[in-house]
Design a protein that fits this description.
Elements: H1 3-10, H2 18-24, E1 36-39, H3 49-63, E2 68-71, H4 85-95, E3 102-104, E4 110-111, H5 123-135, E5 139-142, H6 146-155, H7 176-184, E6 190-193, E7 202-207, E8 211-216, E9 223-225, H8 233-243, E10 248-252, H9 259-269, E11 275-279, E12 283-287, E13 293-298, H10 310-315, H11 319-330, H12 334-340, E14 362-363, H13 365-376, H14 381-395, H15 397-405, H16 407-415, H17 433-437, H18 457-470, H19 477-488, H20 497-502, H21 511-523, H22 531-554
Parallel strand pairs: 1-2, 2-3, 10-11, 12-14
Antiparallel strand pairs: 3-4, 5-6, 6-9, 7-8, 12-13
This protein binds glutamic acid (GLU).
Glutamic acid binds at residues 40-42, 74, 233, 237, 249, 251, 255.
Length: 555
């Protein structure tokens, strides 16, 4: 067969050779050991938590080695594409601080010398490499119709290997004359790989996460270009990862089964195969109605709202918390590192691809909340204010208006119990903030004046009356507390908790009960951050009004 002639017949418009593109995209000038990774999503606009996780792992892999992380848009499947899908991905990543070093940066723009970074803009490149494969006798046109392919599938029902290969590959051995006749008859064709087809051969890869994997070599004559000339994922990614000089392919482990195809494709094209790191999916525990764990499954786009990254923005987890949490899922030594380096930025963590779980990390919302509380308690009040304001602007306009109306007040509110050695860890996400601080806003404040069981209404009223007489908004904490202690004895309580515990029958209660009554009277809650700061923030007039209201209610 005259393959050169066949190549020209199939690709008359292609006048370049691979050398042209090899020269256009020369090896990267990077230090020894620098890793080049990519995130290569389809432009569906939907960023799955698993996608964010994979992108984070790929970015860290590049950045801990002084390499490059880039974004490539894989839009060879037009059915999955949505309007604005590219921006959706880019914005989703950016919200979590992932800004690729190069690649697609908006719907239409690229940054970097290895573009275009959108596959639909690379047709000439794929066709050039496809033509080269035809020239080498490693690819051939296939004229089988969908019905014929369907018939093969049916006939193969009981075969161990299914697909287009060996005796099933009808078009593999067409003569040039037959091909020309088919083309002349206007029959549509796909371009297929002429696989080496060695059933006995095994391939072995050393995956960074999975370790050594041995699999039977590919024997299928897979499709490289579809009838419309658009490449398949397999072929496109192989050409792209070669020309963009990816060194490490970090991707979901649903692609492991395709590795034999990819290894054969890289070899057929004369490319050096990249290294692989296949990430196990993020898992979730399944529970029955009684809450018992019954098994695990993949975090699912359909069943789990937390599978979409937009969920985290909507309920208001700070990006810092999500990133921190994803790192706990990625490297099991992360938490020890964090304990030893409480204030270090995340970038300082020595991320290691080899420390990733091969079986799939378990997603746990309660754990995310804990991580997030730890992250948020380290934020300054100013930062909390800015973040909550931004969140409320998009998600709670009424709360936004309250926060925006008096920044000074809100920052002071967020500063309560934040500056000491042990800041409070009560807030996990911004959607909790309004309810948490509701009593500090007159509009949101509600009080049912429900006193603890051990305090009579009369005693509660007496405490409040006595306190109202001595309260001054400007009191420093020690003065404030001394005043409360001083209230105790005349009312039959003791300022000394120990004393109370030794002899509970001798008192109506202790200083904690007294301050508890004041707390309930002013906030409607039994548990709040530092009461003295709350009273100071509310101010004399409002505190006086609330005390009065409570006293009346107790009468
Ligand atoms: N476009 C593929 C996907 O959406 C990317 C796989 C890869 O990273 O190679 O899953």
């Amino acid at each position: 067969m005259d393959y050169l002639k066949l190549a020209d017949i199939l690709f008359p418009e292609i006048d370049k050779t691979p050398d042209y593109f090899e020269a256009k995209y020369p090896p990267r000038d990077l230090p020894e050991g620098a890793r080049v990774t990519r995130f290569a999503p389809s432009p569906t606009g939907f960023l799955h938590l698993g996608g964010l996780f994979a992108a984070m792992v790929a970015a860290k892999t590049a950045h801990t080695s002084g390499g490059v992380f880039y974004l490539r848009i894989e839009d060879t499947d037009k059915k999955r594409e949505v309007e604005g899908g590219i921006s959706g991905i880019i914005d989703g990543l950016a919200r979590f601080g992932i800004v690729p070093d190069e690649g697609r940066i908006s719907e239409r723009e690229d940054k970097g010398a290895y573009g275009p970074y959108r596959q639909s803009e690379r047709r000439e490149i794929y066709a050039t490499f496809a033509k080269e494969l035809v020239k080498k006798g490693l690819a051939y046109p296939c004229f089988c119709t969908e019905d014929e392919i369907g018939a093969i599938r049916e006939a193969q029902e009981n075969e161990p290997i299914k697909g287009y290969f060996g005796k099933w590959a009808k078009c593999r051995n067409l003569t040039l004359e037959q091909i020309e006749a088919n083309l002349a008859a206007g029959k549509p064709w796909t371009l297929r790989l002429r696989s080496a087809g060695d059933m006995q051969k095994k391939i072995t890869i050393s995956d960074f996460i999975r370790g050594k994997i041995e699999m039977p070599a590919n024997v299928l004559d897979i499709v490289l270009l579809k009838q419309d000339g658009i490449p398949t994922y397999h072929f496109a990614h192989c050409v792209d990862d070669h020309l963009m000089h990816s060194t490490h392919i970090v991707r979901g482990d649903e692609w492991i089964a395709s590795v034999p195809i990819h290894i054969e494709l890289f070899a057929a094209c004369g490319f050096k195969a990249p290294k692989y790191a296949h990430i196990a999916p993020i898992m979730k525990e399944e529970t029955d109605e009684a809450g018992n764990v019954t098994g695990k499954r993949k975090l699912s786009k359909r069943k789990d709202p937390e599978a979409a990254v937009t969920y985290y923005s909507e309920v208001g987890y700070p990006a810092e918390s999500v990133n921190e949490y994803l790192l706990t899922l990625a490297n099991s030594n992360f938490e020890d590192w964090r304990r030893a380096n409480a204030d270090a930025p995340l970038e300082a963590f020595p991320f290691n691809l080899k420390k990733m779980s091969a079986s799939g990390a378990l997603f746990d919302l309660a754990k995310l909340n804990d991580v997030s509380k730890n992250v948020i308690c380290r934020f300054s009040a100013e930062k909390v204010y800015a973040d909550v304001l931004a969140w409320a602007k998009e998600n709670d306009s009424d709360f936004y208006a309250h926060l925006a109306a008096d920044k000074d007040f809100a920052v002071k509110m967020f500063n309560i119990d934040r500056t000491g050695k042990k800041p409070r860890k009560d807030i996990a996400k911004w959607s909790e903030v309004k309810e948490y601080y509701a009593y500090l806003f007159t509009d949101y404040y509600k009080n049912t004046f429900e006193m603890p069981e051990n305090i009579t209404k009369a005693d509660a009223a007496a405490i409040l009356k006595a306190y109202k007489a001595v309260y001054a908004a400007g009191d420093e904490k020690d003065v404030w507390f001394q005043k409360i202690k001083d209230l105790c004895a005349p009312l039959g309580f003791t300022p000394n908790v120990k004393e109370y515990k030794q002899n509970p029958d001798a008192f109506k209660g202790h200083v904690g009960d007294v301050s508890g009554v004041i707390r309930i009277a002013v906030t409607g809650r039994r548990n709040t951050p530092d009461l003295c700061s709350i009273l100071a923030l509310l101010g004399e007039e409002e505190v006086g009004r609330r005390l009065e209201e409570c006293i009346e209610n107790l009468a």
